[in-house]
């Protein structure tokens, strides 16, 4: 990911340390990792919104949506290749292992937002 723009952004020390460690581990520049994370976050937000819209559909809207799919599927043309999720699976496995390693090595486990079942966030003071 090469780009001419190199703006300066400020990160919390923990985020910077994580980014630096990931950079060493993956042998990729920190700027590339940050760009990939931003792209992934943008995609995640898109699909979350898509899922919310699907869940909000009325039965009639759902029937219309499925009908449109059937019309597109009935169009003549070469079949689409099967999706290959193996790369995504490997990336997910790497991320899971890295998160587990970070937690074991001394991560506090603090995350932004409440954990499941909690209504408030708690902060820890260290030092």
Explain briefly what this protein structure is.
It is built from four helices and no strands. It has 127 residues and is mainly alpha-helical.
Q: Tell me the number of strands.
A: 0
Main beta sheet strand tally, sense and closure: none
Through-space gap between termini: 39 Å
Please mark out the parts with pLDDT under 50 across 5 or more consecutive residues, or reply none.
Answer: 116-121
Rounded average pLDDT: 80
Going by helix content, strand content and strand pairing, the class is: mainly alpha
Can you give keywords for this protein?
single chain, 127 residues, mainly alpha, 4 helices, 0% strand, elongated
SSE blueprint:
Elements: H1 13-26, H2 30-55, H3 59-74, H4 86-105
Overview of the structural elements:
This protein is mainly alpha-helical. It has a domain at 29-70. The protein is 60% helix and 0% strand. It has helices at 13-26, 30-55, 59-74, 86-105. It is elongated, with a radius of gyration of 21 Å.
